[in-house]
Amino acid sequence: MSPSLAPADLLNRVERDVQRALRRSRNGLRYAAGTTRPKVGQTPKDVVWRRHKAELWRYRSDERRYRPPLVIVHSLVSRSYVLDLYPGNSAVEFFLREGLDVFLLDWGVPDEADAGNTLESYVDDGIPEAVAAACETAGTDDVNLLGYCFGGVLSLLSAARHPELPIRNLALMATPVDYTQMETITALIRDGRLDPEDVVEPTGNVPPDVIENGFKLLKPTAEVTQYATLWENLWNDEFMEGYQAMGQWARDHIPFPGAAFAQTVEGLVRANGLVEGTFELGGERVDLKAITRPVLNIMAERDHIVPLAAAEPVLDLVGSKEKEELRLAAGHAGLVAGRKAAKVTLPGIAGWFKEQSEEI
Amino acid sequence: MAKPLWRKAFDEVDKRVSRPVEAGAHSDLFGDLVTLQIKLARRAQREVERRTRRVLHAVNLPTATDVRRLSEQVASLQRQLRELENRQR
Questions:
Q1: Do A184 and B25 touch (CB under 8 A)?
Q2: Average pLDDT for residues B55-82, to the nearest whole number?
């Protein structure tokens, strides 16, 4: 039996419930009407390099205390604002507060003109040029590189193919290397049931809805659970801000350039080329053992997009002597956004980079 | 704060339902269905375009295919410009 409440407590509880019901109605109406779209990616920044649709941003800060600068390489299938969601829930803002000089390499939204972009466009041209631009802007000899999701794959390939690149430390976050461990759409493509031409649209790119549906299939009941969580917390303004921003990001995918997709399918997914050591770019085999700089592999234990087993082999594949692993009880996006990220993931990443850097 | 009763009940049902649903979504049969759906949707789209093209062209209206061809030409020009730009570097 539940303990009886004193009249004052009962009154307080009724008052709280009435207030929550009012806020729930207000937030519910706003959510349904879509009048409170979250303002994402608000940290002030400057474009310091641009090539076609790719841009390198440097975030403004008066608190830069460490060098070399941190260059974050974003994925090809999602929007980079997940790293700068909104004030108070932003990985970029966190790194700036920690005294890091933060750059972000955003690939832009591909269209027909980018359908012919190969992995070499990103690995041999985009990343090396952006790294050089970051060095020049920050006035340093080298950078720390952090690749997120497929941006991690691009960073890994670029570091392996260009050992001369001035990268002091390399961190990879939720980076898939063992494609035998990937599920649903990736599995269908791996098994040969789907070919690249089945999913590439007339623009020459893989449309965002294919990518979004592929992610949804990984956890078919997730959307229903999210609605239950929304209903439970509809009264909470802070929760609503985070929920809407994350929801917007999760539905905001971008096209995957067709030529890069075909290489990914053949070389990475079907041949599992990174683990087997057979992956080729520009007609040459990519040797991940050529990476000898310190490497940090950050993995999320509850990541259903890049399962732990797909990201785990990174450290066995690189030739570095100094290599570390950071496993976190988070999901794919939870590595960079949300309360757990602010408390666990981001301090861990910033701490590692700070240890490997010098104070200005 | 303790979860409300309805949420506890929901979580219990979710725990029991989500695993079999996920297993189903990762099964061979479901994979075949998804593959079939993607291929049929692509074929249906092509068929609709083919039929509407005839009608729209008959009344001198441009079709999605015409617009696509134009944007392909623009994209091709953009790529040529990029190549020129790259050669100048």
A1: yes
A2: 88
Rounded to an integer, the average pLDDT of B4-18 is 90
- CATH code of the domain covering residue A92: 3.40.50.1820
Q: Does a structural domain hold residue A180?
A: yes
Instruction: Tell me if A239 is assigned to some domain.
Output: yes
Residue A280 to residue A286: CA distance in whole angstroms: 5
Cα distance between residue A199 and residue A212, in whole Å? 13
Q: Structural domain tally of chain A? A: 1
A52 is catalytic: no
What is the spatial distance between Cα B46 and Cα A288, in angstroms, rounded to a whole number? Answer: 43
Q: Tell me the domain boundaries of chain B.
A: 1-58, 62-89
Calculate ∠ Cα A83-A87-A93, nearest 5°: 55
pLDDT computed for residue A1 by the predictor: 46
B33 touches chain A (CB under 8 A): no
Quote the tokens at residue A204.
């020459």
Specify whether the CB–CB gap between A173 and A148 falls below 8 A. yes
Any catalytic annotation for residue A303?
yes
With tokens 């019901």, the residue in question is A21
A162 given a catalytic annotation: no
CA A26-A89-A46 angle, to 5 degrees, is 115
- Report pLDDT digits (tens) over A240-294: 888 888 888 888 899 999 999 999 999 999 999 999 999 999 999 999 999 999 9
- Residue A89's domain comprises 45-359
Which residues in chain B have their CB less than 8 angstroms from residue A185's CB?
34
pLDDT average, residue stretch A11-31: 88
The answer to whether residue A78 is domain-embedded is yes
For A76, phi then psi, to 5°, come to -95, -10
**CB distance A113–B79 less than 8 Å?**
yes
pTM: predicted TM-score of the whole model, two decimal places: 0.89
Higher pLDDT pick, A211 / A144: A144
Residue A2 predicted with pLDDT over 70: no
Mean pLDDT, rounded, of chain A = 91
Give pLDDT tens digits for A73-90.
999 999 999 999 999 999
B42/A116 Cβ within 8 A = no
Mean per-residue pLDDT, A184-204: 85
- Residue from A200, A205, A221 to probe the interface with B (highest B Cβ count within 10 Å): A221
Dmax over CA atoms of chain B, in Å, equals 68
Catalytic residue among A101, A149, A178, A253: A149
- Residue A72 CA from chain centroid, whole number: 9
Q: Is the ipTM here above 0.85?
A: no
Q: Is residue A240 part of a domain?
A: yes
Structure tokens at A144: 């720390």
Residue A317: what residue type? Answer: L
pLDDT value of residue A93: 96
